[in-house]
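Morning run. Coffee first, then this:
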Amino acid sequence: MQSADATLKGGQVYPPLSEIRNSLRIKWYRCPIATPRLRELLKRSDRKGLQQAGGHFALWLLSGAGVFLCFANGLWWGLLPALWIHGAFACFFNGTSVHELGHGTVFKTPWLNRLFLYTFSTISWWDPFDYASSHTFHHRYTLHPEGDRENLLPLSPLVGKTFLIQKLTFNLYSPPGRNFGKGGFVNAVISTALGALGKTGDQRVPSNEWLRALHDDLPNEHRKSVWWSRWLIAFHLSVALFSFLTGQWIWILIVTCSSYFSTICSYLLGMTQHCGLKENDSDFRKSVRSIQINRISEFLYWHMNWHTEHHMFAGVPCYNLKALHQEIKHDMPVPRTLFQAWREMIETWKKQKTDSDYFYDTPVPDSTHHMIDHNESIADEDLQSSIGELAPAELDKN
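And here it is:
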C-alpha cells in the first residue's frame, strides 16, 4: 500500500500510480516537424555514441590516471586540483550520462548502451532500474505531480553555505530531497544499503516517497533494484579491500568517491531543467527549459541543455538534439543563457516564498496546436512520442 504521508500541496493524498496510468491522459503539444526529417534525427549511431560515451569515459580514465600519478609521486600540491578535475568529469555520470543511456538511444547496438549504462551507474552509485521506472513516468506525465514526482515543485535554486561548500568540494552529506537521487556520498551509501534490503528511507522525504510509490506499482523492477544495490555494495567494498591490501587508499577516491567531487558543475546545469516552471500543463515549452552553453559543457552534459526538445521528442539521440532545435526553433522560446536561466529561477523562487502557486510562465510563439496522446497508435505519432527503450517491460505492458 502507498504511504498515507504521500500528500499533494494542500493535503490531498496521492492516488496509487496504477490508478494514474488508467485515468491520466495528457495530449501533449509538440512542435510540427516533417516525418522524414524526424526519422533522420531518430537514427542512432554507434560512431557518435562512442564519441560521446567513450569520450566521456576516456576523460574519466585520464583524469583518474592524473590523480594516481600525483599520489604515487608525492605531488601533494597537485592532488586536490587533480581530484577536482576528475570529479568535474565524474559528476556527470550521476544522473546525466546514465539518463541518456537509460533511454537506449545513444548507440545503435543495444548491448553497447547497456555496457556503458551499467559501467557509469556502478561508478556513480546510480540505480538504473529505479530510474527507468521514475523517468518513464516523468516523460509520460511531466510535472503532473500525481504521476510524476521525479522533480517535485517548487524547487529552491538557492543553497546554504554548508551545501555550497560541499558542492564546490566534496558532496559528503547533502540530504535527498525533492529531486530523484540519493543525496551526498554518505546518504548514497546509506540509501544503497537500505535498497539492498528492499527498503527505502524516511517517507517524509519526497524522493523516498516517490521511490515507495514506484516500488508498490512495479514490484518486478523493485526486485531488480534490490539486486543492483547489492552489486553496488559488493563492487565498492571490493575497491575498498583492494585499496587496503595494496596500501593505495587513493583508489577509493578515484573510483568510489569520484562522482561526488566538484558536483557544482552538474548542479548548475541540471537545476535549470524544470525549476520555477509550470506544473499541470500539456505544453512542454511551459514546463521545461532549454539553455545555451559552451561546447565543452554541452558534451559533458550530454546535450541535455536542449531539454525542451528532449521532452518533445525523447527518442531523438542526444547528439541530434541541436539539429532538432534548428528544425523547430520557429515554434520554440529562445533558449536562455545559463545566467538568464539562474536569474529567472532565483527571481521566481523569491516570489514563491510568499506565493507557493506562483511559477514563471514562459512566453511561447503563437502556434496551431498539434496534440499528441502518448497511447495513440498512429505511426507518425508513435515516432513523436517515443521515449526510446526507457520503459521497463513491466510498465510498458500496463
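The first helix runs from residue 17 to 23. Good start to the day.
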